[in-house]
Design brief:
The structure is a single chain. By secondary structure, the chain is α+β, with helices and mostly antiparallel strands. The chain contains three helices and six strands. A six-stranded mixed β-sheet has the order 4-3-2-1-6-5. The chain is globular and about 35 Å long.
């Protein structure tokens, strides 16, 4: 796991400014959906995955530190989490969660294994 959960690992092949919307997202045990939104903001980079019918249309925010590899030829983002881990993640609601530091902390804690801030 990366020390900075909110930054792309140097080995991921991420290029700042690349448009990842619509790319397939692959968990360690198979496909989980497509990138709906992403941010390259320093210290707060992430992708939002639209899981489609797989988990009934849920949107999930994944910190950039979960990305292991980007494959531009196949337009795929590979992450180091299982489908079950992603399914159990806090749901993302664009209207409520964009710019919400509490949600940011909750998600960061979930993916890094830290207890939630109360």
């Amino acid at each position: 796991m990366t020390e900075n959960i909110w930054g792309y690992p140097q080995t991921s092949g991420h290029l700042a400014g690349a448009d990842l919307r619509g790319w397939s997202v692959e968990a360690t045990d198979g496909s989980i959906g497509k990138v709906d939104k992403h941010s390259d903001e320093a210290g707060s980079a992430y992708i939002v995955v639209d899981t489609g019918v797989w988990i009934f249309g849920k949107h999930v925010l994944l910190p950039a530190g979960t990305v292991t590899r980007l494959d531009a030829a196949e337009k795929k983002v590979y992450v180091d989490r299982t489908k079950a881990q992603i399914k159990a993640a806090p749901e993302f609601d664009r209207e409520k969660h964009l710019g919400d530091p509490g949600y940011h902390d909750q998600v960061g804690g979930y993916y890094s294994g830290r207890p939630p801030v109360v």
